[in-house]
DNA sequence: GTTGAGCGTT
């Protein structure tokens, strides 16, 4: 009996696989040892090139005319979606295990928001472009047979599942969510998304996709608009994403920095007192977030970097519900880079020396310089969500650029938290859920300011508050917080009033400023040198 | 016949 020496990847120790009597090697024999493999290849010693092995109807044919497999060591071919970073040899030992594991990890996926008209056939048809669909069902009303607007799908491969989870889906004309059902306990999601800082405006999504595809399959590229000098790249393989973190890459001549797209921390449901002390339960095995006392650190790898409060939340789905965070106008428009919190419910420390940073929304792009503590910020830490998510549609539907939260293990449902629905943290106390307003939160804030709604409420919550409206409150607080903030921007040009955080739509000029930590308008993040950007709001 | 947050008569 002839044996064929096969290794998973070139250079690995080979396994001898028995060939059939006719000299062929059964694909099933190969797959018994190398699950997921679909073929063989070998390096031709003469040409130094890699040659593929002929494969037909479940059989692999020896390359030589005498039906001999020779002394070659063959290595496996895996479907493209299994392809790993080519130089990723360190993971060979785990790759196989991983494939086995991942095969076992296919789960039913719930598809929410389906059009009423979608049938199981059309649902299946849609998802078959991602891979083999083992099951597609629409939940219907028993009596009427009418669709309930959601359904389930199951894929044959984990790769397909991952791809589906990391993409958005336009099904029969409607944007739908695909999630792992009741996934609050799902802990296996690892971040596939990386934050790419120091982007320039001429680096478009195609550039990013093209560049990063050489490391692994890119499933999504997201560039916040208006331009904020960063973007997100999502890989199919979280290992690829992780392997790139911390690296600098040159794209179109520009040195960009890749870092973790800060995973949204576990929701702090306890909400108690002044102790804002949460360690994320979602550290994905690579970093834990120590948000202690009154300064939250957005730094990676558990380090306290920058000490700028940031908002780890604030996606369009407003996952900050039930948390002690706030966004007012986080995201692209309006107040953009700055989050002003209302701090209802006791929150944490409005009066101590360590007040939250003026720009709570800052997440560094990995620049090692010009990092300053920013404890002296507005006296309003977060709590309450005012218009979080900025321009994003609350349901994330219909927005082409909205990444899928669940790909990162973020479940916008808020799971069992009691604070679902109406925002319990609403600092306005005016019975408004600004998140539900389909408009620019900055405008909302400005409007409320006009109505003197914001200021009054905030006054009750902030002992430093001297009265006035919200905008003046912003000005005041960012005003006396600017000891650090102003200094961060030595190159500031005069056009931007750091106290005018309220001026949501004013385009700030912060060129030369690497740390925009004051009350600038959201637009000010457009400064070319800015690394003070918030990635978290786009996770 | 309407609707649009959710979690599945196996």
Automatic annotation (TrEMBL):
Keyword Nucleus carried by entry: yes
Composition bias, Low complexity: 350-361, 411-427, 516-532
Domain (RRM) ranges: 107-183, 192-263
Transmembrane segments: none
Keyword entries, A-Z: DNA-binding, Mitochondrion, mRNA processing, mRNA splicing, Nucleus, Repeat, Repressor, RNA-binding, Transcription, Transcription regulation
Cellular compartments annotated: Mitochondrion; Nucleus
Protein name: TAR DNA-binding protein 43
UniProt entry tagged with the keyword Repressor: yes
Domain of life, per lineage: Eukaryota
GO-annotated biological processes: mRNA processing; regulation of gene expression; RNA splicing
Compositional bias segments (type: Polar residues): 270-285, 308-320, 370-397, 475-502
Primary location recorded for the protein, binned into one broad class: mitochondrion
UniProt cross-references to InterPro entries, sorted A to Z: Nucleotide-bd_a/b_plait_sf, RBD_domain_sf, RRM_dom, TDP-43_N
GO MF terms, alphabetically ordered: double-stranded DNA binding; RNA binding
Region feature (Disordered): 262-330, 345-427, 475-539
Annotated PANTHER family: RNA-BINDING (RRM/RBD/RNP MOTIFS) FAMILY PROTEIN (PTHR48033), TAR DNA-BINDING PROTEIN 43 (PTHR48033:SF9)
GO terms under cellular component: chromatin; mitochondrion; nucleoplasm
Coiled-coil residue windows: none
A UniProt-annotated Pfam family: RRM_1
